[in-house]
Structures are given as C-alpha cells and as structure tokens.
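Sample entry copied in:
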Amino acid sequence: MGTKKAEKTKKPDGAKKIKKERKKISLRIGIRTKLLVTFLIPVTALILLGVLSYRQTANALQNLYKSSSIQILGKSADYLEVLMLDVETTAYDLSVDNDLVNYFSGTPDEGVDYSTVDAKMASMLGTDAYVENGYFVAIEGDEHISTNPDVTFDKDAYSVFQTTEDYVQVTSRNRKVWLGESEFLEKYKGEAETPYGNRRMTLIRRVENILTGQDVGFVILEVRNSVMEQLLDEVNLGEGSMVILAGQDSNEIAKAENYPEDKTKRIITNSKAYVKMQQGLEKNGSFGTSKNGKKYWLCYEYIGDLGNCLIGMIPVSTMMEQANEIKIGTIGLVILVTIIVCVIGTWMAAGMSSTIKKIIGEVGKAAKGDLTVRVFTKRHDEFAVLSNSINDMIADMKVLIGKVSHGMEQVDGAVEKVSGARENVHETAEVLSDAIVQIQSGARQQEDSAQNCLVGMDDLSDKIVRVVENTKEIDSISEETKVVVGNGIKMMKELNTSSEDTTRNLTEIMKDVKDLEEKISNITNIVGVIAEIANQTNLLSLNASIEAARAGEAGKGFAVVATEVKTLADQSAQAAEKIRIIVDEVQQQSQKTLEHGENADEILKSQELAVKRAVEAFHNIDDCVERLNQELSDITVQTQAIESAKNITLEAVEGISAVIEQNSASTLEMGEGINGQKDQVEKMSGYTNDLKEVSQSLREEIHKFRIS
C-alpha cells in the first residue's frame, strides 16, 4: 500500500508536464536555424560538387602531367640510346683495329710502333662528338694509351685496373659495361674541384685478338660532360624535379644541385624504390615514392639492353600546382554563395521568428491558466490559420474546464462513501483473520501431536518386530543348545567308559612292568655268572700260557690255544659288561614307567570324577533350556497381542491425522480467502486515496485557469 502510494506521488502533475514539455521545446532547434540549415543544404551540395570537380581535375592534370613527363623522358632516353650506340660503335672500331690489336698482342706490323697506335687512337676519337677522352689498358707489357693529358699511366696500370670495381663489372658481363664513375681512372686523375667532378658516363670494352682468341686489353671511353649537362638541362619535368642517369654500376649522373652533400650517399639508387624498379620486367614505368619526407612521382625508362636507366623524380606538389589554383577558385565561389544564402535565410527567418514568438507568448499565458487571452497576427499566410486554431482551442478548453469542475464535486462524494464502506469491511476482515490464525495454530499443534504419535507408534512397532525376531532367534538357539547338551552328555559317558578301560589297561601294564623287573634281576644274576666265568677262563688261559712256555717248542700250539681262550674270555667279559649296562638302563626305565603309571592312575581317577560332574552340569543346562523355551513361548504370545493392539492404534491415529489435515487445509483456504479480501480492501483503499489525490490535483489545476 505504502509503495503504491509512493509511486503515485512520484508521477508528475499537470504543471510538471507542462514545464517538461516547455523544456523539451526550448532544447529543440529553432526555426531560424532550421531555415539556415535548409539553405545550407544546396551550399553543401555545391561544396561536394566543387570537391568532386577538383579531384577529377586534379587526377586529369596528374595523368596529363605523368603522360607528358613519360614522353619527355622517353625521348631523352632515345637520344641517350643513340649517343651510347655511337660511343659503343667507336669502342668497337678501336677493338677491331688491326694495328692496335696486333701491337698489343706482341705481333705489330712492320713500321707500327707505340707512337703510331697512340696517334691513331687519338685520331679516331677526335672525330667523335660525344667522346671526350679515351684510354687503352694493355694486359701484356707496360705500355698503355691515354688521350687525356691529365692522366698518365705507369707500367703497373693493368695490375691497378684488376683491383678495381671496373674490372669486376666488365669481366662479369659479356663484352662491355657502362659506368657512372670509373674507380680506375679516379686513381690516376687529380683531385676534382667538386666531390662529383670526376663523375661521368664511361664505357669499358674488352679487346680480343680474333685470330688467337686471347684478350689483349681494355678500351675505356668517357662521354663529354657538356653533352650530359645539356641533355639534363633540356629534360624539364617541372619545378623541383630531378633527372638522374643511373649506370650499370648504380652510379648516378645528375645536375650539380641534385647531388647530396655527402659523396657516399645516393639520390635514388640506394633506395627501395630503385630496387622495386629493377625488379620490374617492363622497360619503363612509374610509381609514387618519398624522399626526405617529401612525396615524389617516379618515372623511369631503360636505355638499350645494358641496364642503364634514365629516372625522373617529380614532386607531387609541382604536379598539383594547377589543381591547387582551381581549388582556391572553387573555395572562393563557395564562400560567396554561402554568404548570400545566409543573408537571405536570416531575413526570412527573422520575419517568421517574430510572429512565432508572439504566438508562443500568448499560448504561454494560456498554458499558465489564463484562458481569456486571444492570439492576433497581421500575416495572411499559414500563421493566420494557426492563430485562429489556437483561439478555437482556448474556447473549447473553457467549456471543458467548467464540466470537469462540476464532475469533481460528484467524485468527492462518491469517494467519501467508498472510504466509509472500506473501513467496515477492513475491520471485519481483521477479526476473521485473527480467528483463522488461532484455528490454524491449534490445527498445526494437533497435526504435530498426531505426527509425533505416528512416529512413536512406528518406532514401537519396529521394536516389537525386533523383539519377536529376537525371541524366535533365542528359541532356535535354545533348541540347538539342547541338542549340544545331549551330545555333550553322550560324549561324557563315552569318555567315562574310555577312562575306565584306560585304568584297567594301565593296571595290567604296571603288573607286566613289575614282572619284567623281576626278570631283569634274573638277567643281572646271569650276567654276574658270565663275568665270573670269564675271569676264571682268563686265569686258566694265563696258566696255560705259563705251562706252554715251560714246554718250549712242544707247547707252542698249546700257547696259541691259550691266547685264543684269553681273547674269548675278554670278549665274554666285555659283552657281559655291556649286558649289565643295558639291563641297568632297562631297570631304570621300568622304574620310571612304574612311577608314570602310578601318576596316570591318579589322573584317571580325577578325570573320572570330573566327567561325572560334567554330566551333572549338562543335565542342569538341559533343565534350564527347557524352562527358557517355556518362557519364550509366553513372550511370543504377548508380543503377538501387542502387535494387534499396535495396528488398531495406528489406524486410529492415521484417521485423526487425516481429519486434522482436512481441517488445516480448510482453514488455510479460508485464511487465503480472507487475506485476498484484505488485499482487495487494501487495493480499494489505495484506489480511493489515489482518486482523492487525483481529485485534489484536478481541483488545484482547475483553479489555476481563469475563464472569465
């Protein structure tokens, strides 16, 4: 109830709703802004059109610039190819000249010496407009040719040549190689005025004796610097662009201002762009690259089939110069159009904005409760229709407010009546609810008692069952005990009979032992006689030996007999002694046997007495077991009677428990019904309170309106 009431109080009333709507309106975009945005849409379209036109124009200009640059570079490459072919032709003529080849092969023609071949080489090079200096490095001998007065070779020139990159380049190729700078010639030239003063296009060609097939030397030709400078000056690709001629050794020929300050660095041939260019299979091409943070468009054209390449690097900013001029003109036009559109839109929006502000002011008064206002406008467009509609709406609101005020009085009366009836119903429900709670409490106690009784009866039943089972088990044990006692009595009787037989046998044995003792005494006497006879025989033998000795030779046979008799007498004495010892031992053993027999006789007598007592004990056990069987029979009868009474009691307790459960369920349903009525009454109370609040709120809001 309290929660619902709190939720009701959180709901905004009419005034809060109006304020919230006003706040939303104030946060929206104004009509002036909308008009300006509307006018700016075509301006934006114009800007997009300008951007698109600029991009297309820029792309077209770039493509035109690229194509013209590639054409210029291609023409320059063609010119260079002609130039290089001319130089290669001159080198070929020198390599096949008979006087030159034969002289350096060691087989000169008659009248041909070093001055002859030197003058001839200078003469052949003097007619070539592209070659400035020429050199011949001989493999054999210490004579070499130089048409350059600043270069003089020593006798070790060929050995020096072999240690340079020039030798590696020319020997690793077929017959010739173009270099951007000769490492070999630089060793013999003086120090140049600039770091790149000795850099120039140089052709090196191997010279072979056709007859022998052996190499005789190398021709080295240098292209005139003036020719290369004129070519690079004529190739104009735009402001800030660079044109580079890369030789097969990756050395570069360019304008002096394009060389880096550090001679060890390169313009392009040590970059990834140059590697990418060499990996391509096309003779010419182009792609974008960057150098020192500046973007360039690189185009290239290979010259001939020797790997020399003419490279052009054009700054992207130079290519975009004309496009940037178009961009500036487009931006100026867009700014002018934007200013004109903003002025026109502001003028139109100002007129509409003043009319709207006037209408908003009058509508704001009506929103605060003043329904006596009227909206007027001098315009004859849609704003006049809007003003008339607002006036009609205010008039209709006056009529509606009057009807609502009259209806509120009727609602207040109905609310008072419903509130009184609700109080009576609520009190009655409270009384019934308390009674139901008490009934439910008693029913729970009865149900708990019945449940405890059932649990106790179940426990008692289990114990009775265990007593019956234990009684049956004891009865079985007593029966087994009777059988065991009978068997025991029987065994005792057999033991008694056996004991009597043993006594009789023992008596006979003792009698026999006494007779044996008498016979042993007789044997002892006989052994004494045998010992006496042996002694006498021994004496007789001694006497016979004496007599035989007296008789001499005649008595020797008699002496032998006497000796044998003596031996026999000794053996008889020894046997008699052994018999006497054995007889003594037998006599001692018979004495012990008599003693044991007497002890056994005493034991048998005590055993016979114990057997008689055991028989009497077994008879007593048999009597006790018989009485135990009678008592067990009585216990079995009593436990069966208890079992029957237990079943009757369980049925009665279960019946009581079922009735208690039915009563408890009925009281629970009744309690739920009463609680439901209480909830309905609470809801009705909440609705009544809400209705009171709404009625009060409507009354307060209606009082805000002024209709007259």
